[in-house]
Amino acid sequence: MGMGHAARAAWHGTTRVTDEGRSVGACMSIRWMGTGGGANRQWIAALTVPAIILAAALVLARPGPAVAATTPAAEQAVPASWARADMRFAARHRLLPRHVTSGNPHQPITRQQWLAALQRTERLRQRLHGGQPQLAGMRQGARLRDARTTSVAARSVRAGWFRAPGRRFAPRQPLTSNEAARSSVGMLGLGRQRNRLAGELRRVAPRGVGDHSAHASQVMARSLGLYHNHPAGRERFEVAPTQSLTRAHAAFMLRRVAMAEPWRVERAARYGSMRLPRMRPNEQRLAARAISLVGTPYVWAGNTELPTPAQPGGVGGMDCSGFVLRVLGDAGVPAGQRHVVAEHTSMDMSARPRSQRVGRRQLRPGDLVFWGDRGPRSAPSANFHAGMWLGNGWFIHSAGSNGGVSIDRVEGFWQQNLSWGRRTLRRR
Q1: What pLDDT score does 79 carry?
Q2: Tell me, what's the pLDDT at 428?
Q3: pTM, whole model, 2 decimals?
Q4: Which of 90, 111, 191, 323 could form a disulfide with 398 if both were Cys (CB 3.0 to 4.6 A apart)?
């Protein structure tokens, strides 16, 4: 949805991968493939793919020690999956028990298994980055019906890592993506900032959003790089916020929680100071609908959070343009009070006369914003990404770099490549 057909052909052969091993997604791929037309991008892809294959062949052909001589038995037992390297990491550092790492990676992980793994991950982080464990210093936890107050489960609830509906920890219950995000953020010492962010989201959008704390956890977890963006053809592995987390996803998240650099944690902490402007009713409607979709997976050519046969892989998810169209169509803004956005790609959406383009200083909440290779000097055909402006330098979008819908600040890459905006609401 964020790219034309010519760019789509190039993207399939040249998916960019970051230093954390995450695909930046289709909406972002034009940036590194050049500023020429679709034919040029396909030509670059045609040259790039054989070069990558040749380089990989040369690396694999280099002599090296046998795997059995250097790999522990627990790592050898890890079955093939998209997260095999992460499962091996979890096995090597004993973050997950062997029957989990050697079993079906697509089985759900339980709350008790995750809590135990998170404790081990915390100890690993202590060795790598220092710090003090949170739960070890607690003598008493929350009062639960299915756990003692001195138990780890009770202490994790008191620390804010977990919630306990009905005062039950439910250790054998499958862990959801929302719960994994919440507990990971809490373990990294970001619980207070998460609560502040949830309060700000509640102030801006008090109705129609759902669980503000869950959305805040998802925003911060995605800023930390805890979610994987599955490429085209593997959308079936995506996990919605309220769905059960698989063992593969758990291993992926645990590895990144363990290795999260201090600067990355500090960047996530800044969400606690996010302040959005006071919004008019229609601006608030758009913001509320957009925030309600936080955590929805990034799915190229997807346009709904609902799993339907028409969706790629049959799963719920959206790309950048699919996300903004979903928000504009479902926010409840009366037809006479909004501008019609009929285009279906970020390039076409941004193709407005110069007199109708909105500069950054004139942006208002609910406006669409676009990014291109040359920022304000980009041609509409070079605009590779779209999002929705929230105000005070913050915007919301669906991006492969976040693994789905999240909130970001216009700085660094987003500041350098910001092209212009487009009005969505009529002034009354």
Answers
A1: 75
A2: 65
A3: 0.84
A4: 323
Q: Which part of the chain is CATH 3.90.1720.10?
A: 1-7+17-35+279-428
Question: Which helix (H) or strand (E) covers residue 397, if one does?
Answer: strand 394-399
User: For residue 394, what are the β-bridge partners?
Assistant: 391, 409
Q: 1-7+17-35+279-428 in CATH: which number?
A: 3.90.1720.10
Nearest to 410 by CA among 396, 425, 422: 396
Residue 391: which region, alpha, beta or left (left: phi > 0; alpha: psi -120 to 50)? left
**389: β partners:** 395
> Is residue 184 predicted with pLDDT exceeding 80?
yes
CA distance 411 to 394: 9
Residues in the chain: 428
Which whole-number Å values give the CA distances from 383 to 49, 207, 271, 295, 369, in the listed order?
24, 33, 27, 24, 10
In sequence order, the β-bridge partners of residue 396 are 388, 407
**Cα–Cα distances in Å, from 226 out to 21, 181, 245, 335, 404?**
11, 8, 12, 38, 11
pLDDT of 58 over the 70 cut: no
Specify the residue for token string 């957009």: 290
